[in-house]
Amino acid sequence: MVRVSTSTDDPLTLLMMPPPNESPEERAVREQAEADAQARSDAIDAQIEKDRAAMKRRKKAVKVLLLGQSESGKSATLKNFQMQYAPAEWAAERASWRAVIQLNLIRSVLRMLDALVREMQAASGSPHSPADYLSDSDGEAISSSSRPHPHFAFTDKHRLLKLRLGPLRRVQEDLMRRLGPGSAEVTSGGSALAVPWSKDGRPSSAGGGGRGRSASSPRDEERRQSHEFGVSSTNGWKSALEKIKWGSSGSSGSNGDGAAAQGAQRRREIELDETTDVIVGCKEDMKVLWEDPVVREVLAQRRKRIEDSPGFFLDDIDRVACKDYEPNDEDVVRARLRTVGVQTYQFTIEKGRAAGQDWLMYDVGGTRSSRTAWATFFDDMDAIIFLSPLSCFDEKLREQRKVNRLEDSYLLWRAVCENRVLARTQIILFLNKVDRLQAKLARGVQVREYITSYGDRANDAQTAMKYFQTHFRDIMKEVSPHPRPFFAHFTSVVNTSQTAVTLNAVEESILRTHLRGADLL
Ligand SMILES: Nc1nc2c(ncn2[C@@H]2O[C@H](COP(=O)(O)OP(=O)(O)OP(=O)(O)O)[C@@H](O)[C@H]2O)c(=O)[nH]1
Ligand SMILES: [Mg+2]
């Protein structure tokens, strides 16, 4: 039989009962002691609850969105993060960048070759086809030759180079096919707006070149765009590199028939070997072309500065055009592969105070037509790293050849700072490509010729950097919905050791904001 305890024989109840002969004073003391104990217990419960919330918050990934126009260095910054915080994965991925770097090199060579061939045709008096005037091999618009042609001293050497480097065109096509849409630059953005969203983060009705789609409501449009973005979220460089590794299916082949998969893998390796063989075979001719004084004259006359273009490897032909070439860290950061859609990147901090903290970084495509999708990420970010390349003050957007790049950057910065959804989000500005700015000013390019408000200031890098920084700060001050601190770093993110120092400061600052959100600081 089960014995049920009653209030009078339960030992705990008996223990808690006041003594039968308790005086009023003793009772007051006892009740006070009980109240104190209860308060201590409540405080402990509250602390446990707070710690639990903090743990939850700590476990919640820090989310960072990288923004900035195309070629501002977003992906290059992300690569620096990866190198610093996920070294094993970085090392494993490095070899896959070889094909991208080979393509970058070939593209520069073919741009020179195209310029040379056109001038040779002009010199021989052969008529140009209309297409000759439209684009280079990489689709870059060139100016029409209405100007008089100077007389270049072409020789048989140039005609031979044209013939001998011809096979690179097929290699370029092969590599582009394998690497997917990110391997080509966007050279026409139609009428896409600089900022295709409103101050409250909604897509502008005219945004993204969206003319002719007015039948859908703004909400439908927003959903449609986020859906598109979701679909394209695997289109980052990882999928491009996977394609190179595993072929266009992106599958490792491990699930299929073993022999067939192995055969397919072997065929891809042979294809990649053939690509490398052609490049190695063209090595000496590529060097001759790059070092040829007449070619240099042609480029100067056409105002082509190949060394300023993304993915410049012409000074590395000896290393890159080798059978056993393996990219080093800096090669990978310098490699150019345009971001299509969004690249999501996750890593966990391994060392230090924030060890174990997960980070999620979002790298978006920066061309005007890609920007519509940015706003769908705004409401959930701890921080934004905004990149503006300072060296671009004299350049035009590829996708809209009339728009000055720096003006475009100012417009974007203004729109990000004034956005109400981002009012409480930390924004960190990277004034990037300082190395290129220094090189440009050193060779005599005058800022005031492109930025009239620059006035009579000295044309040195320090003065220009300070001037641009002040302009960005003033915009932020003017348009931010609430006062916010101005965090800016001068960067050259291709310099990986310098960038590591900047990233440490950035990590610390973002983490503080993240933890402050959980009242941990
Ligand atoms: N010299 C120099 N090159 C840089 C710097 N930052 C980026 N680059 C190069 O500029 C090119 C473009 O950089 P990306 O990181 O691909 O630019 P992005 O902002 O991701 O461009 P999208 O993907 O088109 O939006 C790459 O070849 C980079 O290596 C820099 O500070 N100095
Ligand atoms: Mg990118």
Automatic annotation (TrEMBL):
Q: Where is the composition biased (Low complexity)?
A: 247-264
Q: Which residues bind Mg(2+)?
A: 339
Q: Name one GO biological process term.
A: adenylate cyclase-modulating G protein-coupled receptor signaling pathway
Q: Which GO terms describe its cellular component?
A: cytoplasm; heterotrimeric G-protein complex
> Which keywords are on file for this protein?
GTP-binding, Magnesium, Metal-binding, Nucleotide-binding, Transducer
Amino acid composition bias (Basic and acidic residues), ranges on this chain: 24-43, 218-227
List the Gene Ontology MF annotations in alphabetical order.
Answer: G protein-coupled receptor binding; G-protein beta/gamma-subunit complex binding; GTP binding; GTPase activity; metal ion binding
- Annotated binding of GTP, by residue: 308-309, 432-435
Q: Where is this region: Disordered?
A: 1-43, 122-150, 180-233, 245-269
SMART domains, sorted? G_alpha
Q: Name one Pfam family in it.
A: G-alpha
Q: What is this protein called?
A: G-alpha-domain-containing protein
